[in-house]
Specification:
Oligomer: single chain
Number of helices: 11
Shape: globular
Strand order of the largest sheet: 1-7-6-4-5
CATH topology of the largest domain: Peroxisomal Thiolase, Chain A, domain 1
Radius of gyration: 19 Å
Bound molecules: oxa(dethia)-CoA
CATH architecture of the largest domain: 3-Layer(aba) Sandwich
Strand content: 15-25%
CATH class of the largest domain: Alpha Beta
Length: 329
């Protein structure tokens, strides 16, 4: 009898822009200071895509090429390419389709998907289902956001947090049972008023919207913070219980990098020691859809085959959840 197909991550790539926006530079832009930002968020700098006219695809293409380089796969063998993003290049024409063409994935179909900061996590669920179905053998999932494109650099409540970046992973079938094991995904639309950018079909850009700066991201940080800790802890707890996993059996917690205090409080609530929580927020800030793959990119050389990794996110919408995955190489 053929083994059940599971969806394993078999390679990682990434790209972050060169430009580092430091806390010191932010001090010259808004009423803030390095001490406040580091102690309240853990962020020291973030990368900003400065190239003129460059959108999210500038980073997805580079992240995908880095993935092709590390995995040595022929782009023509990619069946599906998904870009998880809240900041597509343009409305209506998919960033994923353009990315696929630019990297030579000529036999792939491609699409974008958006669940704000949970985009990559939801994307993992989609990628896993396509692989498990047996229809597709190679799915590339890229999490990318040019957050600077929706930031108000006069609003200290948001602009100190977000940065730009992209991370890419390859999903392939495993017959050893490695890869995605279980998931718990949820959403609640009553939360959207607490974190959103009023730019879209309900809010087409107008002279007033630009003048009032309402097209930029706005958030009620306190509400988002509290809800994030509760829902992330609940999600991980649900996944651990459902899979009879003790925290000691888990090697890594890969949590969305929104605020170091959110990560610490979530880990503490579920009893996972701080050293198991992957953290790179100090370097990149909150890159929305890119936080999880950038964690994998940065920490890949510490993972061992069979390591149990618990992913967890919370984001605008609200969207949240957790995925349990075993590392495949
Ligand atoms: O990816 C998912 C989306 N986002 C999140 O998960 C973000 C969740 N929220 C947060 O991370 C935090 O709420 C923030 C980092 C946004 C804010 O931190 P906080 O500890 O909740 O600060 P606060 O808004 O309660 O403000 C505390 C104080 C206030 O001063 P007073 O009223 O106590 O005198 C603020 O005016 O800090 C002040 N403040 C600042 N001071 C220096 C707020 N922002 C800043 C700043 N620099 N950038």
């Amino acid at each position: 009898m053929q083994n059940k197909i599971t969806a394993a991550i078999t390679g990682v790539g990434g790209y972050v822009p060169e430009y580092r926006l430091t806390n010191k530079e932010l001090e010259t832009m808004v009423e803030t200071n390095d001490e406040w930002i580091v102690s309240r968020t853990g962020i020291k700098e973030r990368r900003i895509l400065k190239e003129k006219g460059a959108g999210t695809s500038f980073m997805t293409i580079r992240a995908a090429k880095s993935l092709l380089e590390s995995t040595k796969i022929d782009p023509k063998t990619i069946d599906l390419l998904i870009v998880a993003t809240a900041t597509p290049d343009v409305m209506a024409a998919s960033t994923a389709v353009y990315t696929a063409s630019e990297i030579g994935a000529t036999n792939a179909f491609a699409f974008d998907m958006d669940a704000a900061c949970s985009s990559f996590l939801y994307g993992m669920s989609i990628a896993a289902r396509y692989i498990e179905s047996g229809h597709y053998k190679r799915v590339v999932l890229i999490g990318a956001d040019k957050c600077s494109s929706m930031m108000d650099y006069e609003d200290r409540a948001t602009c100190i947090i977000f940065g730009d970046g992209a991370g890419a992973v390859l999903f392939e079938p495993s017959t050893e049972g490695l890869g995605v094991q279980d998931e718990y995904l949820r959403s609640d639309g009553t939360g959207r008023e607490f974190l959103q950018a009023k730019l879209g079909s309900s809010y087409p850009p107008t002279v007033d919207s630009i003048a009032n700066r309402t097209h930029f991201v706005q958030q009620d940080g306190k509400t988002v913070f509290k809800t994030a800790v509760s829902m992330m802890a609940l999600s991980v707890d649900t996944i651990l219980k459902r899979n009879n996993l003790d925290v000691d059996a888990v090697q890594w917690l890969a949590a969305h990098q929104a605020n170091k205090r959110i990560i610490d409080m979530t880990a503490q609530r579920i009893g996972i020691p701080a050293e198991k929580a992957l953290v790179n927020i100090e370097k990149y800030g909150n890159t929305t859809s890119a936080t999880l793959p950038l964690l994998l990119w940065d920490f890949e050389n510490q993972f061992k085959k069979g390591d149990k990794i618990i992913f967890v996110t919370f984001g605008g919408g609200f969207t949240w959840g957790s995925i349990y995955l075993t590392w495949a190489y």
